[in-house]
Amino acid sequence: MSDFLKLNRDGDVAIVTIDNPPVNALSFHVREPLMKALVGLRDDSSVAAIVIACAGRTFVAGADITEFGKPVQQPDLRAIVAMLETIAKPTVAAIHGTALGGGLELALGCHFRVADAGAKLGLPEVKLGLLPGGGGTVRLPRLVGAVKALKMIVSGAPIGAAEAHAAGLVDAVFEGDLTTHVVNFAREIARKGGPFTPVRDRDEGLGETDLAAFDAEAADLARKARGLEAPIACAQAVRNAVTLPFDEALAAERALFAGLVASDQSRAQRHLFFAEREAAKLPGKDTPKRRIGRVGVIGAGTMGGGIAIAFANGGYPVTLLETSQEALQRGLATIDRNYAVSVSRGSLTEDARRQRLAQFKGSTDYADLTDCDLIVEAVFEDMAVKKEVFGKLDAIARPGAILATNTSYLDINEIAASTLRPQDVLGLHFFSPANVMKLLEIVRAEKTAPDALATVVDLARRIGKVAVVVGVCHGFVGNRMLAARGAESEALLLEGATPRQIDQAFTDFGWPMGPFQMGDLAGLDIGWRNRKARGQTADIADTLCELGRFGQKTGRGFYLYEAGTRTPVPDPEVEALIRDKAAEKGIAPRTIGAAEIIERTLYPLVNEGAKILEEGIAARASDIDVVWVNGYGFPIGKGGPMFWAGLEGAGKIIERLEYWHQRTGKDVFKPAPLLKRMAETGSWEAGATA
Ligand code: 3HC
Ligand code: NAI
To answer: Where does the record place the 3-hydroxyacyl-CoA dehydrogenase NAD binding domain (predicted)?
Structure first.
């Protein structure tokens, strides 16, 4: 019937199969034949029931996101669903894989939904800064109740087939060949006879809605939205489903959707959706990959332990190597505790814990790493120690094994040069806690072989990481830009801002926390040791460390922490210390506003990003955004620093950088040439090739 839609008959049951790889998105070239097919089947008296199914790996995974922001071509999804609801004979959605967003909304237009046991169903639009715009907010609550619909729509998290069945979203769950089951199901339903009630006319989910409880839940979710508009709009739309007649609620949903789809926040989140997928692409996508069976991890400290867990959770057996039995046992005990916490929180079963623990093998002997296909080093941040480790690895690792370092700052070309196989050496820069944080900076060294790189990019996806390939420089993309962001923090304090004011400016911007709270959380001693090693100082932070104020771990840092809490309380002692230091330096305190805090911290961040792009350390501006959103908490509603620079205006950023450069003479404020080209062309990429 079309390249994207097939029509089959099994007796009196018609099967419409959408075939739009890779995820059967509801593009215009699907909607148009789908509408025609459904109208034809509605009017065909030889058809007793209609099944909507999908070819390939999944049911419809949503509207076609690439069409957003362009004029809508009719029929849109709403028109198709409205048409479906005029059909008197039974309509059945046959769901396998994922029925997401517009996919689930299409299924909600059917009288019945049947699912494969492994299917997942959800409305993830909120993750794109949107709400379900095809009637999902109005129909889902009619089946599963307002509070469950609210949770599903505001979280965007899909539910499994069994849960969907229990909640009333799905009418039957089958294992095995779904088509056979669904055809039998449809025929049986048709035989029993109607009338068949469309979801719009059902209300079993709404009957008992306790609006006070709903509003309490919605208020709680709104608090967690941290400045994002979409979760609030989602909650409003679901509330409308309870309080307004169907058509009014549907119209209100449409109006909210139209507002969101045109918003900067949704543009930012859609940018991130594609940016994450782009980041994982390497030139020459057919590069062969090496086989990775067992993974070795050297060092069972903070990072090594987390990295080992990340691989074990991804299904890889891990050999963990330490310098002594004592350090090894300490590391393994921490891993054990980590899993025990997951069990106590209910996120892991006891059985799964045992299976995961069985993946680990501890050792203090390098000879035990000879069967590893990838070895990740996470020992102390010291070039001499790293070189020694890589020298040993060079002697024992099997030919072709990939040798990776988790260094935060060190020169990976130099580490690679300490082996006779630099083509097998690269960086795998995990973020702490390594088993939780999504970001993985994959550092390509000068001599890294393409197949080694392709292998770890693929591996990253297998262990649930968001990978970004970066080049070698001090701090790579993330930590190098972090240093630029932090460069003015101390100056702002000395000039009159308090840690609380600075952190507040960050949280008002949408960050989960500001730089001082983050420093207290990570431990101020880490930066202190780093500065000492590099012959650098920081007036305030060094003094705090000399006083034993390392942050949360000592109960005191830039803030005070009551025993057993993580709530930062401003400390008059720290504020006095800052004033004394300022007086010593002859700096008179003044009032500093949030706008100045943002421009002196985030404009240099963008500027450093531009330099990184110029130097080819990152391949695309969007890769930098992926690093900052997934590794450092840059607000998703602003799309990452490079996307945000476009919203803010590169011209304005340059003007203010130049102003601060003139006032302070500091290099971080000197606008990068690429930033200037961005201001002229409006695009980082155009700038890069100009
Ligand atoms: N529209 C357009 N392209 C899409 C898409 C969509 N809805 N969903 C996925 N794609 C593309 C991806 O960009 C990627 O393209 P590429 O190969 O060129 O990079 C390709 O499909 C494969 O995607 P993934 O790499 O993500 O494949 P996975 O197998 O890892 O994941 C998935 C599959 C779970 C379906 C995941 O792609 C996903 O979550 N997709 C988005 C689902 C979504 O957000 N749906 C709601 C859309 S908004 C909507 O429906 C509005 C409506 O209410 C009106
Ligand atoms: P850590 O001090 O917690 O752990 C290091 C471990 O390595 C110790 O258990 C030590 O016994 C072991 N070790 C030292 N030399 C060894 C050797 N020759 N062979 C085997 N084991 C050895 O340090 P952490 O924080 O885990 O850092 C490790 C690496 O990860 C460093 O390069 C660091 O820069 C990097 N990193 C750290 C992050 C963090 O937030 N802590 C984040 C990202 C990277």
So the answer is: 295-471
This prediction's pTM: 0.94
Pairing relationship of beta strands 425-430 and 439-444 according to DSSP bridges: antiparallel
Active-site annotation holder among 67, 85, 125, 278:
125
Q: State the pLDDT at residue 534.
A: 84
Q: Hey, what amino acid is at 70?
A: K
429 Cα to the center of ligand 2, angstroms? 12
- Residues 472-510: pLDDT tens digits? 999 999 999 999 999 899 999 999 999 999 999 999 999
pLDDT value at residue 223: 86
Residue 207 DSSP SS3? coil
Report CA(407)–ligand 2 centroid distance (Å): 9
Distance CA 624, CA 305 (A): 27
- In 3D, which of 474, 478, 486 has the Cα closest to residue 439? 478
**Looking at the chain, which residues constitute the CATH 1.10.1040.50 domain(s)?**
497-584
497-584 adopts what CATH topology?
Answer: N-(1-d-carboxylethyl)-l-norvaline Dehydrogenase; domain 2 (1.10.1040)
Topology adopted by domain 295-475: Rossmann fold (3.40.50)
The radius of gyration computed from the CA coordinates of the chain, to the nearest angstrom, equals 28
- pLDDT number for residue 687: 47
Which ligand has the minimum distance to the alpha carbon of residue 134? 1
Cβ–Cβ < 8 Å for 31, 70: no
pLDDT (0 to 100) of residue 686: 55
The ranges of the chain annotated as CATH 3.40.50.720 are 295-475
Mutate which of 4, 20, 23 for ligand 1? The one with the most ligand atoms within 8 Å of its CB, which is 23
Stretches where the chain sits below pLDDT 70 are 686-690
Q: Which CATH code for domain 5-262?
A: 3.90.226.10
Nearest CA to ligand 1 atom 33: 23
For ligand 1, the distance from its centroid to the CA atom of residue 273, given in whole angstroms, is 8
Question: Catalytic site residue 105?
Answer: yes
Task: Please check whether residue 176 is in contact with residue 112, taking contact to mean a CB–CB distance below 8 angstroms.
Answer: no
**Smallest-distance ligand from the CA of 153:** 1
**Domain boundaries for CATH 3.90.226.10 within the chain:** 5-262
pLDDT of residue 689: 41
